[in-house]
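Tokens for Imidazole glycerol phosphate synthase hisHF. Go.
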Amino acid sequence: MEATLFRSSSPLFLSNTNERISRKNLTFKSKNNSVIRASANGGNNSVVTLLDYGAGNVRSVRNAIRYLGFEIKDVQTPADILNADRLIFPGVGAFAAAMDVLNQKGMTEALCSYIKDDRPFLGICLGLQLLFESSEENGPVRGLGLIPGVVGRFDSSTGIRVPHIGWNALQVKKGSGILDDVAGQHVYFVHSYRAMPSDANEDWISATCNYGENFIASIRKGNIHAVQFHPEKSGVVGLAILERFLHSRSSLVKMKRETKRKASKLAKRVIACLDVRTNDTGDLVVTKGDQYNVREHTKENEVRNLGKPVELAGQYYKDGADEVSFLNITGFRDFPLGDLPMLQVLKYTSENVFVPLTVGGGIRDFTDGKGRHYTSLEVASEYFRSGADKVSIGSDAVYAAEAYLRTGVKTGKSSLEQISRVYGNQAVVVSIDPRRLYVNNPEDVEFKAIKVTNPGPNGEKYAWYQCTVNGGREGRAIGAYELAKAVEELGAGEILLNCIDCDGQGNGFDIDLVKLVSDAVTIPVIASSGAGAVEHFSEVFAKTNASAALAAGIFHRKEVPIQSVKEHLLIEGIEART
């Protein structure tokens, strides 16, 4: 990932014993009737050694390990690696930064020795890449050199979107061990760099994945395993993979699949969004706006209450949501680091929800009442430590883009630049909130105007999309097209594209807007606002280059089940995870 290492004062974020989860004889069922059982056996057999060097969100890995009934021992010294019965290395961040930490802590030799001795090892994401000879990321940078090959960046000039984000299919080889029975299933990837197959490393490869080209998705030799995808974010399939590694035998997990269609390529994602805020009595609730107005049209004018965030997120995970997104819409009024309820929502949700979690709202620089200054990076770090995989930046990204377009200078000081530099651009989503403004002639405005499908109130055939800040209350002199291209340059890894005009209307996504922006950038675009029927999802995927589609109200009110959306997409010939 494109990042430099961020290290907290406590690199082992989640080692507090009071945060540990003890589950015995656990049974978990998913919608596709996959079953996972785990039991803590006691003694050293239930202990997993985790190499967490202090960058990014590894809380989900910890939660998955504990969910499966195992305890965690954190690596503090090289001796902890050599004494491990099982070692998991969930690499997060940049290749060079990770190698620097391993070298500085004197762990490189111990790690190589452990792996060469064929002892149980599982590398995740960067934990796979570091096994190779070198990486081109900010390099060349020398790796551990255990597997022949160089890690290079995906080539976006071929038409693929980089980062590679989403649920893709594996081509699994025989004898893959922990990947037995996983062929035909989707797993979750999020990365910009990959290792390529070659004659020199062929005997290591246990699975490949196709994204513009075939790249190495997993390796296996003896007891050594590593995967490019994130099993801790791959739902029941990922939990099965983790459990097979932890038990060192494959017979414990029997995955019963009733899917009618096997995974074949990158799936279009269906994302459930939860707008979270405090109501008038101080309770944290999920709400939903009508063109961004979240209050009921009643005499009391109370905040619309559609449920409890942790419970709803858990239900959407069981229903098959590919991701869950939280938008803290009180974030612009309350100090984020003091917003403890939202942090607790993330912590509790991530204990039982094993798909990606995004959180947005209030991620910006702050000075508190005592004069202490907090950077947006510190705010984002708090969200990551609490279980977020991605953060969504709204108003602050607009201001950064305006400054960049005005000066042509990347200062590196904006929240967008800081967070993407530290955690990688795949961890940063920019949320765009545009409003449609009609014009008679595209030359009438300095921003990108397009011919629209539905003319304006006075017969106008063209429109431009004005970006807004502060929850849609303030328009800015920048268009959605210009903003999207600017934030991609500044380090955004994904765009969440809303539309104020369509919000809560149930008439479908703004296809003109989604096509405009998704054609303009090479990073993934999430279509949002307006979904009211399953046909709206297939329409936006068929007519635009959107990588994902997000909905809120229709899921909260149970008007359209998530599984109904997935089944409709499959009928329409659109790849979806089932």
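The first strand starts at residue 26 and ends at 29.
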